[in-house]
Amino acid sequence: MNKSYFNPLAPMDKEDLIRTLELAPHVEGGYFRQTKKASDTINLAGKGRALYTSIYFLLEETNPSHFHRLTADEIWYFHAGSPLTVHMITADGHYEVVTLGLDISKGQQLHYCVPKGTIWGSTVDKDYALVSCLVAPGFEFEDFELFERVDLLATYLEHKEMIERLTRS
Predict the structure, then answer these.
(1) Which structural domains are found in the chain, ordered by start?
(2) For the segment 98-112, what is each residue's pLDDT rounded down to a tens digit?
(3) Which of 8-17, 110-119, 137-146 has the lowest mean pLDDT?
(4) 4-41 as b/e, with b when 16 or more CB fall inside 10 Å?
(5) What is the pTM of this model?
(6) From CA 159, how far away is CA 116, in angstroms rounded?
(7) For the DUF985 domain, which residue ranges apply (predicted)?
(8) Do the Cβ atoms of 85 and 59 come closer than 8 Å?
(9) How many CA atoms lie within 13 A of 19 on its CB side?
């Protein structure tokens, strides 16, 4: 049975979304805008931190999210576009993937939590994907580590193909 669903974002292309959502280039790749920073704080390592932060994040086929690591969990919520693949190197060195998208009959996830300490990046196979990301405790750039190719290859040579795809140098 072929069902048709209303998608209010369908008429918008990625340039429309970048402009309308006021997205800016992100250092790890893609485009983003912080949409919420909790006014409530927690004490973390002697510093007051926002309880959570949230962003819009748009990735393109030619502009992936490069391998990085956070010190907090990050939950991704899929909104529109092509399926997005999250590529992860776990703490024990295993490579895992999760696909976010709207086709749950094909195993795509509507949302996914990337555990803190995971090395990860994301790709889109066609055009773009629009997601929201929530980080708790709230994101701070001091908690963000963007990886260099040589460093990852020294430890995870068995994942060479993906490391070369998701690092800049």
Answers:
(1) 80-169 (2.60.120.10)
(2) 999 999 999 999 999
(3) 8-17
(4) eeeeeeeebebeebbeebebeebebbbbbeeeeeeeee
(5) 0.90
(6) 20
(7) 16-147
(8) no
(9) 5
